[in-house]
Amino acid sequence: xxxxxxxxxxxxxxxxxxxxxxxxxxxxxxxxxxxxxxxxxxxxxxxxxxxxxxxxxxxxxxxxxxxxxxxxxxxxxxxxxxxxxxxxxxxxxxxxxxxxxxxxxxxxxxxxxxxxxxxxxxxxxxxxxxxxxxxxxxxxxxxxxxxxxxxxxxxxxxxxxxxxxxxxxxxxxxxxxxxxxxxxxxxxxxxxxxxxxxxxxxxxxxxxxxxxxxxxxxxxxxxxxxxxxxxxxxxxxxxxxxxxxxxxxxxxxxxxxxxxxxxxxxxxxxxxxxxxxxxxxxxxxxxxxxxxxxxxxxxxxxxxxxxxxxxxxxxxxxxxxxxxxxxxxxxxxxxxxxxxxxxxxxxxxxxxxxxxxxxxxxxxxxxxxxxxxxxxxxxxxxxxxxxxxxxxxxxxxxxxxxxxxxxxxxxx
Length: 412
Ligand SMILES: Cc1ncc(COP(=O)(O)O)c(C=O)c1O
Known about the structure:
The protein is an alpha/beta fold. It is built from 13 helices and 13 strands. It has three domains: 1-39, no CATH class; 48-283, Type I PLP-dependent aspartate aminotransferase-like (Major domain) (Aspartate Aminotransferase, domain 2), CATH 3.40.640.10; 314-412, no CATH class. Helix 4 runs parallel beside helix 10. Pyridoxal-5'-phosphate is lined by residues 40, 100-102, 126, 172, 176, 205, 207, 235, 237, 243, 248.
C-alpha cells in the first residue's frame, strides 16, 4: 500500500514512554503484578479538597466550554502563584491554560517554529521535546552534558550550538530525567550568551518545580532582559498528583499568548471546565500553608523489597514481560549507555542494599559515582562498563534483586 501519511508523521517515532506505559497497563490488565515507572506520575492520590472542588463543580452544573485561554479566575490564581513562588509578574492576558503542560509546549512550538528552524535541546531531555520539534518540521540539536557537569550545559556549549537557524532553546529545571537544577547564577550565565542572539526564544519548562530535592529552582523569565523572550510552562500534573486532570499553562508576552490561542482554539478549544475549577482550589494550596504533594514523596512507603525484576526498554521494544519494574533507556533521552531511574526507586535500592550489608554501604560495588542524589537518576557507569550483559547484578538474600531483563544502551 502506498504510504499516504504526511512526512511529519512518518518522521515521528512512537513515544517510548507511552509505549512502555501502555504495555505495563496491558500486562496489569492480564493479571501481572507490574510497577510501571515509565510515566512521570506521583504515586499519591489527588488531595481530597481538590477532588471535592471538582465534585462540587459537577453538581453545580459546570458543564460548558470555558474561554479558549481558560477561566479568568484560574488565570488570576496562576498570576498569584507566579508572584508568590517565582517573583514573576504575569497578567491574565499573558497566560493560556491548556490540557496539560505538554499541549502548551506543542502550542508554542507551532507558533514559533518554521520548517528548517533549529531547536536546541540540552541533553538529557524529555522525549517529547524532539518529537514536538519534528512535528513542526524543525530540526532538533542536542547539546550533550555529563555527570561531571551535573548534567548541565555550559555557556560555551550553548554558544557553540547556536547557528543563524537557531530559533528556540528548551530549558527544563528541575530536569526530567536527570533531576538536575540550574542555579540562578548558571541560568544568568546562559542568558548572557542568549543576549547576543536576540532571535532565539527560550522555553522554560518548570513542571517539576515542586518535585525537588535540591535547591529551589529559578524561573528563567525572572532574568530581567529574558522576560520578553521566555515562555514559562508549568502545570498541576506533578505537584498536585493531577496528571490525568490535564491542566497546564503557558505564560509569555501577550503577542505570543494571542498566537497560541489561535492554535488552541482550532485544536483543543479549552481545558475541561471541571478540572479548571478544581485547579483554582489546588493553586491556593500554598497560601493555606499545606504541604505540596511532592513534599510527601520522601515519606512514601518503600517498593516491595523482594525479587523485583527490572526491565529496560529500548525504543518501543520493551521487554517487560518478565519484570515488574519498568525503566527507560537513556539513549531515548539523549544520554547513551544509561538508564533512567526515579529518585524513589533509587532510595529503595539504597535502603535495601544498606540493610542487606549491615549498614556498610561502602561495600556496594556500584554505589560510588553512580548514585546521583536528585529526583531522576542516570546510571551510566554500570551500563558503560557492560554490566547490562549480566542477568543478575545483585542477589542479596531476601533483599532487593535487580535483574536486568533486557540489555539496553547504545548499540543494544
Ligand atoms: C519535562 C516534562 N514536561 C512536561 C510534561 C507534561 O506535563 P503534563 O502532564 O502537564 O502535560 C512532562 C510529563 O512527563 C515532563 O516530564
